[in-house]
Model the fold of this input.
Amino acid sequence: QVQLVESGGGLVQPGGSLRLSCAASGSIFGIRTMGWYRQTPGKQRELVATITTSGSTNYADSVKGRFTASRDSAKNTVHLQMNSLKPEDTAVYYCNAEIITNSGGYYYTNDYWGQGTQVTVSS
Done:
């Protein structure tokens, strides 16, 4: 069974920083693209950042220059360094990963999601 667990969320003042982490565990053959998404009440979940196995990243325009995604393949972990945080960054942040598993001699690729971690930016 595969699981993703996020950590690092919390309360921070505007202009502050937080570092989110997401660790994947279970029967994993490999991990392709990993990413971060966020959601506020009444709104759709939106993409924040993605990172491929080669380290190529993609960011939402609203976070470019402030957020940085990275990954540690040996630990099946992805990070999101968030700097210069704004009140509008307040949301539940979710980790996502395309994970390859092996069952009965067949390989499958599926999206997995973490439970989310709350980030609140307020004075």
Notes: The chain has a mean pLDDT of 96.
